[in-house]
What we know:
Layout: E1 5-8, H1 17-31, H2 41-60, H3 66-80, H4 86-99, H5 110-119, E2 124-128, H6 132-141, E3 150-153, H7 154-157, H8 164-174, E4 181-185, H9 188-197, E5 201-205, E6 218-220, H10 226-232
Parallel strand pairs: 1-2, 1-4, 2-3, 4-5, 5-6
Amino acid sequence: MNQRHLFFDLDRTLWDFEKNSEIALHHLFQELNLINHIPKFSVFHSLYKKKNAELWKLYGAGKIKKEELRTLRFSTTLEVFGLRDQQVIDKISDGYVELSPKQTALFPEAIETLSILQEQGYPMHIITNGFKEVQFIKLENSGLAPFFDVVVCSEDVGKNKPAADIFHYALERAGANAANSIMIGDDYDVDIIGAYNSGMQGILFDPNSKYRTRSGDHKIKHLNEIPEKLAWIS
């Protein structure tokens, strides 16, 4: 068996966060009749994504708590359209947490690639900054769970990637050696630099060519490139 351990990010690497989020939000937009307050779903969705990204940065820096993020991303978005009804805010906030993780869209070739890696004998694990109670729902509903031995959420450690603590904790849980482990994720600063700083190697999943990488970095646009890429990483 190949003893190199593979650690994957979940959201935006395997589980298609943007697609699944949009499906859930569109359903809630219709269910709560937000069309009466907001001219188009696309206008709401665009502003929500901007607000959500800003708040996740604050959460990642430890400046707001999980509960604040979950409420503020909707209250600040709806407020722009003059909607301050707390009942509506609570319904969309709770509804999103309930509905979003049950969506099952994955990036192309996710299951096929994981199957190949599993057959090749790689022990595989997850390291995610996502909230623990929803990440396991995503893994189960989308068929990803059987591929992974250890799943580490940032809440288990009290720190988010790229903090070295979460990588070290995951390595210890998996019984893996950092020098013989590879992190695969979509965020260069969070996943790849975090892995480097923890003594691991990294593969950046960058389907939209978002990042300019450094010499020596390993980068892929499609998940099915992973098996071949691994052969080049010493």
